[in-house]
Write a structure and sequence with these properties.
Its cofactor is thiamine diphosphate. Its EC number is 1.2.4.4. This is 2-oxoisovalerate dehydrogenase subunit alpha. The structure is a single chain. By secondary structure, the protein is α/β, with parallel strands linked by helices. It contains 15 helices and eleven strands. The chain has a five-stranded parallel beta sheet, sandwiched between helices. A two-stranded antiparallel ribbon has the order 1-2. It has a two-stranded antiparallel sheet with strand order 3-4. A hairpin with a 2-residue loop joins β3 and β4. The chain starts with a helix and ends in a 5-residue tail after the last helix. The chain binds thiamine diphosphate and magnesium ion. Magnesium ion (MG) binds next to β8.
Length: 464
């Protein structure tokens, strides 16, 4: 204990009197301060536990184990029902018609891009793809309620966050084809988008790593927000699936975010599956929301098919995250993964077709918003047809253009780790060059910028 801390504590005790208690400890004479203290809990008439590890817990003489399975499940927040009707008309949707239309168009755009890219993978034109079907409302709705300067960390099924922030169709396609215009210089597999300009960190395949990254970024933002009170305060927002929440990183991240009180919004997309693992095999608690309470984090469960609920929840979470210098918030957005996990998966090997068909028919964020728009006479079949046909053309145009682009220079396979190439890397480059020259038919590199010359460019550089 530092001298300053001890003397301050003693000064306070002096003020409070000889029998006073600090943090639930009582003073006795002639012993070091920490030995002079004992838990208030042990005093005869104490009503609450005041041990440092559990404050304000009332004593009870009833031996009753907490039985979460016997309690009501956490409620799910809704603004609009399945028929597109608003439940609390007084609050309404807090969304201008223009904005609702823009959100609707983006959700449709995402679903059309998904459909076409899935087909393109099946035709062998793309190596891999992941669709957002059934979860478009979560990514697009939440992104629409954040500030563009908020820093986003995604898992992989949140293309809607990118789209809503302004990632263009060409940006998606360039990444999917890993061509020379790809932000990631062709180094990542498809759907691992990233955008420095849009404040979205690049997706990582390793599940849950983005969660502690977001907590750390939020800690940095907390300091920046307090150092720059005249600037727009920022939060970090972190998306992950309920399966990723089984990783240790989830727990470490939520705990540090809570103890450091950082402005981070954790958005869990609970879509019922982690590839082939249904939630019933993943956990026994009440979803992911119940874990928020365990970490002392403000938590809400939301109907992810209800775009207005997603928006309002995110808007309020953002305000809460910036309260009192910062605090984390957890939102569990409920959805159903309508598509296969990825193009490498056939989900009918582990779930019934009828289950998927039921969900498709029962509820969907796009059809629900469409019902609301139609109810307000903002939308009809003719507009729908026109939107679908123009969007399809736009996606195909971007796709064909990206497909024609050259691949990035081969040099990018080696650069960007060390400032200068090491001797070992130089040996690898030479070896690769030799293999390409020996097997020109197997390794046709003409489609790469600069061909095999891309490797010569780096060999010409000064040795590291
Ligand atoms: C550390 C790690 N373990 C396993 C995997 C393989 N894997 C990729 S996605 C996935 C399921 C994740 O499910 P969830 O978080 O619920 O997201 P969803 O796919 O449902 O959107 C698994 C197990 C991985 N990528 N990284
Ligand atoms: Mg999942």
């Amino acid at each position: 204990m530092s001298f300053r801390y001890t003397s301050r504590r003693l000064r306070i005790q002096k003020l409070l009197g000889p029998q006073s208690c600090l943090n639930g400890v009582r003073r006795t004479a002639n012993a070091p301060l920490w030995q002079r203290c004992r838990g208030v809990a042990s005093t005869a008439n104490a009503e609450k536990v005041l041990f440092p590890g559990a404050l304000n817990s009332e004593f009870t003489d009833k031996l009753e184990f907490m039985q979460p399975s016997q309690q009501n499940a956490i409620a799910t927040f809704r603004v609009m029902n399945q028929f597109g009707e608003i439940i609390d008309k007084e609050i309404g949707v807090e969304t201008e018609d223009e904005e609702a239309l823009q959100i609707y168009k983006n959700m449709v755009k995402l679903s059309i891009m998904d459909l076409l890219m899935f087909e393109a993978q099946r035709q062998g034109r793309l190596s891999f793809y992941m669709v957002s079907a059934g979860e478009e409302g979560i990514s697009i709705g939440s992104a629409s309620a954040l500030h563009p300067s908020d820093v986003a960390f995604c898992q992989y099924r949140e293309a809607g966050v990118y789209l809503q922030r302004g990632f263009k169709l060409s940006d998606f396609m360039n990444q999917l084809f890993a061509n020379a215009k790809d932000n990631g210089l062709g180094r990542n597999m498809p759907v691992h988008y990233g955008s420095k300009e849009l404040n979205i960190h690049t997706i990582s395949s390793t599940l849950a790593t983005q969660i502690p990254h977001a907590a750390g970024a939020a800690y940095a933002l907390k300091m920046q927000n307090s150092q720059n009170p005249d600037q727009q305060p920022r939060v970090a927002v972190c998306y992950f699936g309920e399966g990723a929440a089984s990783e240790g990183d989830f727990h470490a991240a939520l705990n540090i975010a809570a103890t450091r009180q950082v402005p981070c919004i954790f958005i869990c997309r609970n879509n019922g599956y982690a590839i082939s693992t249904p939630t019933s095999d993943q956990y026994r608690g009440d979803g992911i929301a119940s874990r928020g309470a365990g970490y002392g984090i403000a938590t809400l469960r939301v109907d992810g098919n209800d775009i207005f609920a997603v928006r309002r929840a995110t808007k309020h979470a953002r305000a809460l995250a910036l309260t009192n210098g910062g605090q984390p918030v957890l939102i569990e957005m409920m959805a159903y993964r309508v598509g296969h996990h990825s193009t490498s998966d056939d989900s009918f090997a582990y779930r019934q077709r009828v289950e998927v068909e039921d969900w498709k028919r029962r509820d969907n964020p796009i059809t629900r918003l469409r019902k609301w728009l139609e109810g307000r006479e903002l939308w009809d079949d003719a507009r729908e047809k026109e939107l679908r046909s123009t969007t399809r053309k736009e996606v195909l145009k971007a796709f064909e253009e990206a497909e024609k682009e050259k691949k990035p220079s081969l040099r990018h396979a080696f650069e960007g780790v060390w400032e200068e190439l090491t001797q070992e890397q130089r040996d690898h480059v030479k070896e690769m060059r030799g293999v390409i020259e020996r097997y020109p038919r197997e390794y046709d590199v003409e489609g790469f910028e600069g061909g095999v010359g891309g490797l010569d460019e780096i060999l010409g550089k000064k040795e590291g």
